[in-house]
Specification:
This protein has about 550 residues and is α/β, with parallel strands linked by helices. It is built from 17 helices and 9 strands.
Length: about 550
Amino acid sequence: MSLYFKAFCVHECYNDTMQSAAKRQQKQGRYEGLSLAELLVALTEKDQLLEEKNHLLEAKDERLQAHQKYLSDKDHIILEQSKRIDLLEEYLRLATIQKFGASSEKLAFQSDLFDEAEIEVALSELEEQLPEKDRVRPQKKQRKRGFSDKLQRVQIHLTLTDEEKEGATKTFFTKVKEELEFIPAQVRVLEYWQEKAVFNHDGEDRIVAAQRPAHPLGKCFASPALLAYIIASKYADGLPLYRLEGMLKRYGGDISRSSMAHWIIRLQDVFQPLINLIREVQLEGNYLQADETRIQVLKEAGKTAQSDKWMWVIRGGPPDKQSVLFEYDPSRGGAVAERLLDGFGGVLQADGYSGYSKVCQAAGITRIGCFDHARRKFVEASRAAETKGTQKKAGQPTKADVALSKIRKLYAIEKSIKDLDCDKKTQARQALSVPALDDLKPWLEKNVSRVPKDSLTYKAIRYTLNQWEYLIGYCEDGQLHISNALAENAIRPFAVGRRAWLFADTSRGARASATCYSLVETAKANGLEPYAYLQHVLAHIAAADTVEKLEALLPWNLEAED
């Protein structure tokens, strides 16, 4: 530090000291010569000024604290809004993917956090513990060549000319090619000519007529085969009636869609006794799967056209008598499930809908969950995750991806043991699936508090934990499945058809559709071709005037189509 700067600092300090002394002298001079009373007044005024100053300082502090609270609240609001925006962006990405993306649950980013070879090794070790006679040897799949031997075949002989085979010692044919040919549908008119005989007895004529075949709808110009075609086209192939109207018109059959709809509704009463028998047999089984989906019915008493109505599906029954039954009801209440499951006492597999809880508790039904629903929630969370600037872009899996990897291990186990019998499946699940589940649950409990509340990942974790008791139930019995996929697959044709015909006009039409879907899907579950089964039923149900004749029309009492 320079000498000049030091001198400058000393000078400034001296000036400040002299100014302070001068002010003190002025104040002392101000109070000199005052009487005691005047001094008291001056002191009182000074105290008032000090008190006012303190009030001003306190008010200033209050305003400062209020401003600080305002800033803190504003920061909290901004933080909450930021979280809300993140959630809305996540939901928006999911909605965009659901509307425009692929419907498959396969992910482009699918981390393999487990080694599938470990499962094969564990299965091999488990297999070695079994007696030699109980071991399952994998069968090599043979490549299928050509078409089914059950198809009608027409031989087309490609012959040589007389000049080409002149001088040959012998000729023979070899099959060099097979082609699959399609024969377009055609319509024709069936004319029934009834033979009548006239007998003369005592001068009076008596006429005897040949018996006419019973028709399921009585007076109706559509043959049973045409009725079967209409039902199969609409409920197995998802074609709306207006398209069928156009197709039949091209073939020469001019039938209005209103006539076809009227026939389908009338067949509801014809098929109902057969549906009742199928339901009785279904409830005799010990394992059922249930699901429900929305349907729009325009004219339902007490409900608006836009309100939700429901199509229920129950699949199951004895192992050799599987059935799929649809039931329309405007309500999704537990009373519907109670009615559909009345008399059942086995295992019910369904999603997390609480409507099944009451009937399961009241009837002693064991309820298990569906891992497909839990997995699907994690798939949605993974697909909706933002990829820009996140762990995914950096090559690190999100928590939804980690959960999916652990769940995929359970499905890989199921794929590996699908050909085992029930007892061996149970043993394999206890040895392999239970440890995998024991690893999954603690991970879910640990991470549920580490993700934003109300996010898709949080909801997926919370759903899985809430349903855990039901989700692990499949490990107790080898005949049970990890998911409700069979019921969902049965309801898929209804969902596909719904996109074409969009809605049902009346509740009676919705119930008729439920009946037709039941017959179509039950036929498929028993290896029957739906059109062939429907044609057989329609050709014989009008004459089925006893329970025995009706039972003969049950799908498991007919030979499966090869």
